[in-house]
Amino acid sequence: MPPTSPLTLPNALTLLRILAVPFFAIALWYGHHWQAFILFAAAGFTDLLDGFIARAFNQRSDLGAVLDPAADKLLSELAHDPSLVTMSLPVDYWDYLGWKDTLALHGHTTRERAYADARGDREVYTPQVVVNGIVHVLGSDKAAIEEAITLTRQNAAPLTLPVTMSVAEGKVQVSVPAARGEQRSGEVWLCPITDKVQVPIERGENEGHTLAYTNVVRRWVKLGDWNGQAQTFSLLLADLPSGNFTLHDIDRLAAIVQSGVAAKPGLMLGAATASLR
Hints:
By secondary structure, this protein is an alpha+beta fold. The protein has helices spanning 9-29, 33-56, 62-67, 70-78, 106-119, 142-155; strands at 128-131, 135-138, 164-168, 171-176, 186-200, 210-217, 221-226, 231-236, 252-261, 264-275. Helix 1 (9-29) runs antiparallel to helix 2.
């Protein structure tokens, strides 16, 4: 079925939400909290409504088909920057639309909500980029992402802990040095990553298209807790696969040390990557 007119009802509702943002901000600025709440509630309702309409009446458009993959394309570009550790975390809260993302993990949804709780802003949406664990921006806005990277590097000093990782003899080892600054504790996580995944889209705006996902995290494995002392964590490669992927599907590993806890994650303190190919 060919795409419909760009201004479908679901897209019109999306545009109305975008246009309502400045009015929401003005209401908050002048202390009109009740009006701000009404706008926020209306935005939440129309978000659910446009998804239902798109599914029920198979309404999709060239506009939606162009905008939806923009964040994935941008992530692919950012992945070439050696100063960045980029990871894609597909979420499952759009499964109600009738098509389940084969790469989505409920743990990713839980993590995104945990970030929102930690920030105190309740901002959970797609596509979202969380920069250095503390700032969120629209995933298709390159300028906003670059600004967030610059600001967090200037103000929060992320990734200053020189984490190292090695893979040999069927085992991965992650070494975390002793603390050098104020941050003296965190959680150590290992993420198996698939570099590229082609996913055929069966429902929604991009039905019939195949999208390319970059640096997809297939699982989160907690290696332990870092206590500020020099520590080494290890895991057998054979223990990495889960039910939805095999070791052959993994192209690289990312190890991260993050302040806070899983329920309230904070600043990224250090990271390292290692290729399995």
